[in-house]
Amino acid sequence: MSPQFYLDNFYIDCSRNLVIEQHNDGQQKEQNLPPKTIEVLFYLASRQGEVVSVDELLDRVWSETVVSNNSLQRCIAQLRKAFGDDSKKQAFIKTHAKRGYSLEVAVVYPEAVKVAVDNDKAKPYLPEKEANQHNDANTTDIQITAATSHSYKTTAVIVFSLLFITVIIFYLHDSADTWQYNKLTPLTSHDKKETHPLFSPDDKYITFHRYDGMCANNIWAKELSTEREFQLTQSTGFYGAHTFAEQGNKIAFMAKNNCSGVSEQRACWSLMTIDFQQALNSPQVPQTVATCDDGKLSSPVWLNNQAIAVLRTNEGKTRVAKYQADAPDATDIYSPDNLTLYHLLQTENRQQIAALAFDQNNQQQLIWLDNTGQLLEQFPIQFPESIAESQLLDARYDVQGEQFIFSLGNTLYALNYQGQISKLSTLAFNHIFGVQKANKHNRLTASQGFVDADIAMVNINIQTNKPPLLASELNQTVLPYPSISRSTFNEQHGQFQPKGQAIAFYSDRTGEQQLWLQNSNNELTKLTKFNSGDLLSRFVWSPNGDSMLLAKNGVLTQVFLDKSEKTIALNFPVTEVYQWTDKQQLLIKVRLNGQLTLIKLNLKDLKPTVLLAQEVLWAQLANNGVLYYLDTEQQIWQLQLTGASPVTSLRHQVTGSVFLMQNNDIIGMNGKDELWRYQVITEKFQLLTTVAPQFSRLSDIKHHSVLGTQIASSRKDIVLLEKSND
User: Fold this and answer.
1) Torsion of CA 28, 32, 35, 37, to 10 degrees
2) Which residues does 27 contact at the CB level (< 8 Å), separation at least 6?
3) Is 184 exposed, middle or buried (0-12, 13-18, 19+ CB in 10 A)?
4) Comparing C-alpha atoms, which of 169, 167, 175, 176 is closest to residue 13?
């Protein structure tokens, strides 16, 4: 059956998901319908006049997905709306109670094929038709097989094939060309880092976050027509990514009460809003809608009627909750037992919610809910080979394409509404993050830039590690400490070699993040050849210093000093590697039955032992066998046979997501740039030294030397991506 056909005065192009209505005056109206809706129409057209059962339609259109009847009903409603039909008229699609549906209008194939059969002159691609051209009730399908002459059959097949190939080539070329953005225009050029760009619903403004340091920021707006900038939030805070209400009058976002970790308050996220129109006149104080007393809150999206949906986690269970912007009470509207939700996606239709989750087989799922939490559809997400299936997704909806878009590296991807991920294009520019498409125009906004960070070493026995600022030898960048293998790229996670003098670290100095080794003679060796799309965890040294272990795309991978690699096959994906003990035990975070879980893995027999069925930021085993871990609220806990208890002496002493373990001592850093030691046996707390503000992210300790990351610069600007007219 041809992917193009007529229904009455409608031209259907299934290859482009198009329904084109031809009016009497020659004008045309184009409508893009979702792929599944077009598939339903295509199958009904192939059985025109017959009653097709609901089960048959579900089996044909959703053959690899379990969905409810609501999915089919929604497609039928969309088709009727496109044809000006409804459930009362049923002129195009008829409902047969408890049986199924039938297409009542005759199917007519393109004139080019008809004329090839009749040996007549072909008409244009989309010819104008008389208003009553197909209104005759006796109109029947025109099939290629109706021709009795073998030569006519051959001619028809050739013409039809050429027509079909031409349409497909046009579609593919048009689709690829749509995403070839080769013109970049800077929108901001500020010393401070700027992220989270977002078009306002009317595309008149781009809103973004401008940072004051590494985490504190304000939300700003730039009017594109005048290039005026407006500070929207009155006071600097730790604000997460924001989202607009449908009318564009309000903005919602998550806010943390502090960046430093030295506040007496809990380090958790609250749901906040500001009035966008008022903020354009003067900066506004964010209004609190909900606090973390309601649980761990994340991922806000606006619904209709000024309601906000968020993910709310309590006691390890994540639900979808709904708040009214002007009321503190929340309602849990979706609480699945067999899924672990991790992100909500803003949708064009504010009456629906799209959610991302892991099922019990660790397969990612795209969930569609209505605004009451009723499950509409569920699709397994289909990843291309270039993306790890454990990759967490954060995509923005594309109104014009009925899909979500996101970028990884310099590659732009689409996640369609049925869970299929496909590559859109390779961006012509590097270091692009947070891509978002305009609502009414074919252009993108994004954040562009990179972090220049080095591995540095400080001595914890020196009371004050704040030396005069030093200029590096390579490019005179001002740094507080000498760098280990200085570059202008991002070096991180330096690790001392056990029983050796080398230091290993990650660096993207060759374009992609790789594992590097610097020996005692300062000679540098690249150990790996990771691909740009590889998802990498931290790494740990083996106790004897001959290799390192890390998770690559969820698979435990051992990297040796001779550059060889070996994978360790497990029945679950690994998301983080924390420690490799002298007893050949590995402390790792994995995903079991969709849930993040901390386990201890015996490397001799690969037998896992579950320690905690919850998310942790960091974990280490002390020499006395006690487990210490950092939860998502920056609190360190100790886990013994009697259960877990917080280390109260460290309640306000943790910043970042890493602490170090040296024998039975915990080494960490607080928000005042102070390194400290906590002796777990004696429960003694001791301040060690003060470091420069550029020094952060502790990564390892050996004797009296601590490795960490020092930031030379963190520059990201907001840019506009468009197609050049050249």
Assistant:
1) -70
2) none
3) middle
4) 167
List 270's β-bridge partners, or say none.
255
Average pLDDT value for residue range 319-335:
87
Do 697 and 492 form a contact (C-beta atoms < 8 A)? yes
Amino acid at 390: S
SS (H, E, C) 379-432: EECECCCCCCCCCCCCCEEECCCCEEEEEECCEEEEEECCCEEEEEEECCCCCE
Q: What is the DSSP letter of 166?
A: H
pLDDT above 50: residue 145: no
Q: What single-letter amino acid sits at 476? A: Q
Sheet (strand 52-53) strand order = 52-53, 100-103, 93-96
* Interacting residues of 683 by C-beta distance below 8 A, sequence separation 6+: 649
Nearest CA to 176 out of 412, 500, 400 is that of 412
β-pair type (10-13, 364-370)? unpaired
* Prediction pTM value: 0.74
Pairing, β 684-691 against β 464-465: parallel
Cα atoms in the Cβ-side hemisphere of radius 13 Å centred on 532: 11
Please, what is the end-to-end C-alpha distance for the chain in angstroms?
40
- For residues 534 and 553, the answer to whether their CB atoms sit within 8 Å is yes
The 8-class DSSP code of residue 477 comes to: -
For strand 403-408 and strand 396-398, is the pairing parallel, antiparallel, or unpaired?
A: antiparallel
Residues 6+ apart with CB under 8 A from 552: 530, 534, 535, 536, 537
Find the Cα–Cα–Cα–Cα dihedral 530, 534, 540, 542, rounded to 10°. Answer: -50
Predicted confidence band of residue 138 (pLDDT cuts 50, 70, 90): very low
Task: Give 270-294 pLDDT, tens digit per residue.
Answer: 999 999 999 999 999 999 999 888 8
How far apart are alpha carbons 74 and 80 in whole angstroms?
A: 10
Q: Which residues contact 317 (CB under 8 A, 6 or more apart)?
A: 335
Both structure tokens of 606: 């690969």
CA distances from 213 to 192, 260, 671 (A): 8, 11, 12
> 367-382, pLDDT tens digit by residue?
999 989 999 999 999 9
Whether the Cβ atoms of residue 206 and residue 222 lie closer than 8 Å to each other? yes
Q: What's the maximum distance between 2 C-alpha atoms anywhere in the chain?
A: 98
CA 2 vs. chain centroid, Å, equals 37
Of 661, 656, 657, 655, residue with least CA distance to 638: 661
